[in-house]
Amino acid sequence: MNTQTVQELAVDRLNAQRTGDIVTMGQMMSEVFRYVDSSGRQFDKETYLDLFVDPDAIQWISQEMMTYQETIAGDVAIVETLLEEKFILGTNAYEGRFWALHIYRKEDGVWKWQGGQTTLVNEG
Q1: Which of 42, 74, 92, 114 is the most buried (most CB within 10 A)?
Q2: Res 72 pLDDT > 70
Q3: How far is CA 26 from CA 17, 66, 81, in A?
Q4: By three-state DSSP, how is residue 44 classified?
């Protein structure tokens, strides 16, 4: 049984995303994964990996977790984070702070990332 905490999984998830480790990231994700980005676009596991992890699609310059707050109730965890990110997606460069709400759930005793939603923080 994986004894990894939710916070360790959240940090490992960021590292796998930033380094383009599609295999490791895929193992952390539930098969019923659902995600909504800051533009309101929806992704399943395959499309998330293709767009936000695959180094052929995205170049992560930096991604830092500024805050971390978790609430665990049984086999479900809700994680709120503030992320500072710089990345190039296609031909567009992005830089900013993003508030993320992620859901994790234990599947057969192992925490898996179920998905979540990210919002660009308007600091103007």
Answers
A1: 114
A2: yes
A3: 10, 24, 21
A4: coil
